[in-house]
From TrEMBL:
Protein's recorded name: histidine kinase
Segment forming the signal sequence: 1-20
Lineage: Bacteria, Pseudomonadati, Bacteroidota, Bacteroidia, Marinilabiliales
Residue ranges of every copy of the Response regulatory domain listed in the record: 1110-1225
Membrane-spanning residues: 803-824
Matching PANTHER family: HYBRID SIGNAL TRANSDUCTION HISTIDINE KINASE C, TWO-COMPONENT HISTIDINE KINASE
Enzyme Commission number(s) from the entry: 2.7.13.3
Record-linked Pfam families: HATPase_c, HisKA, HTH_18, Reg_prop, Response_reg, Y_Y_Y
Enzyme class: transferase
Gene3D superfamilies: 1.10.287.130, 3.40.50.2300, Histidine kinase-like ATPase, C-terminal domain, Homeodomain-like, Immunoglobulins, YVTN repeat-like/Quinoprotein amine dehydrogenase
Domain Histidine kinase residue range list: 861-1079
Keyword Kinase appears in the UniProt entry: yes
Amino acid sequence: MKIILFCFVLLFLLSSGGQAQKQYSFIRLGNEDGLVNNQVNCIYKDHQGFIWIGTVAGLSRYDGVSFVNFKHNTADSSSIDDNYIINIQEDFKHNLWLETSQGYEVYDVREERFYSDPNEYLEKDTSIINIDRVYCDNHQQIWLKDYNKEYYQLLDSATYELRSVFPDYSETGSYLVDFKHANGYLYCLFGNGTLECYDDSDIQLIFSDDYLDDKMEADSLNAELFIDAENDVWFYGNNLGTHHYNALTQQWSYYSMTSNKTQLTSNIIRRIVQDDKGLIWVGTDHGGIDIINKYSGEIQTIYHQPDNDKSVAQNSITDLYIDDNNIVWVGSYKNGFSYYHESIHKFPHFRHLWSDPHSIPFSDINCFVEDDKGNLWIGANGGGLIYFDRHNNRFTQYLHDKNDPYSLSGNVIVSLFIDVKGDVWAGTYAAGLNRFDGKKFTRYQCEIDGGRGLTNNNIWSIIEDNKQNLWVGTLGGGIVTYDRQTDQFKPLPNNGTIEPPGPFINQIFKLSDGNMFIATANGVAFYNVEEQRFKYHPTINRTEPFDLGNKAVNAVYEDTRGFLWIATREGLIMLDSQTDYIKHFTDNDGLPEDIINCIEEDEYQAIWISKSTGLSQIVVNKLVTNEYEFHIYDFTKEDGLQGNEFNPNASYKTSDNELIFGGANGFNLFKSKDIKYPNVLPKVVFTDLQVYNKTVVPGQKVHGRPLLNQSISLTDEVVLKHSMNVFSISFTALNFFIADKIRYQYRLHGFNEQWLPLEPAQKQVTYTNLNAGDYVFQVKASKADGSWNSQYSELRIEVLPPLYATTWAFLLYSLIILLAMIYYRYSMLRKERLKFEMEQEKLLINRNREMDEMKLKFLTNVSHEFRTPLTLILTPLHKLMNQATDKSNRKLLEVIDRNARQLLELVNQLLDFRKLELHGLKYNPSYGNIVAFLQEVSTNFEEAFTKKRISFTFTHDVDQFMLNFDRDKLQKVLMNLLSNALKFTPENGSVELSLQIDTNEELVYISVKDNGIGIKPSDMDKIFVRFFQSEHNKKLGLSGSGIGLNLAREMVQLHNGTIHVESKEGKGATFKVVLPVTREDGKLEETAVEVGVDDQEQPELHIDMKGKASILLVEDNHDFRTFMKETLEDRFNIYEAADGQAGIEMVHKVIPDLIISDVMMPRVDGLELCQNLRKDIRTSHIPIILLTARTADEDKIKGLEIGADDYITKPFNMDLLVLRLNKLLEKRSKMQKQFQKNVEIQPSEVQITSMDEKLISKAVAVVETNIAESSFSVEDLSKELGMSRVYLYKKLVSITGKSPIEFIRIIRLKRGAQLLQKSQMNISEIAYEVGFNSPRYFSKYFKEEYGMLPTAYMKSFNKEDNA
């Protein structure tokens, strides 16, 4: 079986030996890319896929994008102990064994720490084993060699015990130089040159060879073995080349710089490896890399080329390493490292290199053509014409020589063609056309001898039709054809009506039917060779050109399917001429609208296009009619292209199905089947975890707790505190095949379920403020060809809830809630008990309050009732006092009057207190002289103080001081204070009322001072408390009601003032009232002061009445109503009603001239009576006077607002009442007279109530509307107004003093007077116009109204006009 395999491999390698040397293109990396140092000693790839590079200055880990460097840190005991790394190996725990200049160290990849003592890592006593060397075999088992042992010992991975597995062959008597494990065998090389091979399963000796006995030399300690895939042994390291042991033939061969067949570039060999093709790579010192075909003996050397950035990094090779993806890693002595794989730089690249004399002489390439030998003619952009002998790998260059007329006409070649005779036609830019027959160039230029018909020297396209006629497309001169017989060019004939798009021809392409497809700067055209005419369509007669969007077309192409492809300056267009299907490729298809330069088709019908951003391969699949599927694959400079931009016309397909594309940096020549993608799924690993932008390492505590127990790359789950709400995860795909083309997508299960794309350079995702819960972060990568890997890496993330949301917290909350419920239950029961007790107490309080309210209400009602008897006492009393002539009788009457007044004051005080309890007192200020006011109040007490022989004085600083104050309430305050002073001051005492003004503080000080009994200190803070009565005063018989001072304080506080007392028991008391000064701008307001029972002067009555007026008395008190009737019946006709309801009924019966009503009555009170009468149009005109025991201002205001004409409080002066009755009746009489004077056709200006005004206005309007109707009567007017004739009569008489018939007649006469003044009508016409049946009646009534006949009235106005 081995022999068959050997023959097959030999046949393959021998067959490939005759081909041109393969190009090896590398990617370089060094210190400028992040490598710790450019002197590389060793390279290794671990099980995760990281590349580890050992240098003389530290260790680097490479992930395909970036480096992580490890260096010795004296402050960190877990850092690497020695920076000089010689070798890297990996054990069964996937930890790394590092051989340094100081010995061995172990890097624990999980804990991310270094063990400087391997025994500590192995948990071995250093006294047991003295480690000389360490070897990790292919199974990652650890072999240790003791200084005192000849062979390596195997470390048991389970027990960590060392086992000696090799038999002790003491006859070697030499030290062990190298130890290798390969293909199931263990190889031992001893210092004496003995080579032993053992079976690794049972450690049985397979063979022993001593060929190397005399080959070890003095430097044998550096000697090494390499065992290839065929078990061949390669010995090197003695600086004398390499010895090769063939396992099949068991023969040795030798390779060196001086060997006969295969010669190396250097005898100093640093490393030997074998690639996946079976080729042996030999890394040498200063000799680059020799690649040996061990079967054919052929050798190819890879050198560093200073002007080629894709060459190996340096010729001094320090290490070679081939990983599991067959990538060859090459370490250099001073220039970092480089790596190679045929799938990285996929496209062979030919360009000029000054370091390679065999390279193409010029790099900027414009066009290609292939001869019958398979060699290439290449047109350079300034480098002339180049012939590429591919079999000999040799380039020949032809240049313009100004002294040689048979040389090229110019060095800028833009088009090439080989005709049927084998002549090479070369079109130039600005130098015409050249024909090369193998010996000399024949020039065709339009400036010389007419150019033999050539129309332009810019030759952009050359082609031959099926009749072997040569077509030449020029840039500015259109298309010409070449006549071989005459050696002349002729214009292209056009027998059709369609003109060519323009003279600027970019390409002429011959279609499969022999016709031409032409690309121009102004679109495309088709030319039928047989019919010799231009067309818009290749097969049918189309009248309009295709809509190409951008008309500048660089190239056209017909593929083997018959599809037409058009390359424009703004994208690619595909046309199916059979169906007229047009496809414009856009970004949505994966093909940007870039500049498209050239189009070619490979042997698999895939379309290749060169553009301004690289190459693209388009795979076309037809689904159904006019529906196609396109798969587009893009390639860039990173794939090995000469550049991302390609030149127009610079493409070609050879006879061997090779595709060529050229640009400014050379050309790429390839077969599409050789373009291989690595069959490697990019593995994504996590490289970093950051919390608040700080990297977290294993074992590091963050906010008091360790986050990572091992490296993030090996971690499956991370638990974060809720406070760690800003964290980042870094990752990378361990793929070294053009890492820049790899794209990433990520998602976080539990947060977002959709895959989200990342920017190409972004390899980190940050999350902030995640809610507590379990998440799974997943990330996947794409392959280099753009397809996505279905596998992804994931990291489980648990975000712990905050302390207040943990399970223990919720248990605590539950306990708290349970305790709260228990406490709530207890509290509710306790609350209910307290509530019950409070309700009982409240019921008791309410019951007591209701009792107090009932008492107070009873007293208030009684007080109200007192006012009516007091009125019946005081009013007749005043009459008796006026009539009394006997002094003794008058004195008795005065005593009665004084006590009645005192009783009235007590009633008023009780009413004020009741009002304070219910609604509070209202402040009604007026602007007045406080000095005059105090003088007026004090005057009322002078007689009382005199009778008690008390000295009373009123002192004041000024004679006049104006401010705002409530006269009524301040009067009650002073009356109360002066009354108390009178009461508590004994005979021969003194009382002083004083007024002081503080102009700075804007305050008024009023004090009442006496020298009476004073106030006990214990009572000082209680005297202003409601219902307080001093026990001391009770004993003295001086106790009051306990209301006065409390009411006085409330009234002072309404003024925003204060009241306080100063007293010494037995020496009197001083009450001080302090009021703030507030003023009004402008004139003093005149305040209407009611005339009460104290008025001294009574006005005389002047009532001029033809007859008695009728008055309705509405009063529920029979005695008071009788008294009023008897008093008023001499002057008026009196009607009576016992309550408000009876009063309303009586009003409608008698229509009185005036109504006097009490307010407080059963059934309907006085206010409701007034409101009802004012709403009724029939009674709204009647004046109403309200009599009431309610003295509050708000009660007066309410009564007046409802519509009362006056509001008089009980008790009152009867003469004052009679005066007001006469004034109201007199006012009504004046209103009637005013109406009689002012009635016009327009609404009257008489001042009446709004209801009456509406009535009169409506009545006037109705009469005016029917003024010409002589039959319009009082009945008609009453119907229009909605009133009975009787009510209308009473209403009009009450308001106007005129009956309805007089009202109608006056309006007719007023209209007649107007017509007499202004119209040209005669008197008869006017009489009939205003509704009179006869001019005689009109003249009669006109004379009664105006005092003259109509004729005289008309003449008087005519005289005034003439004057």
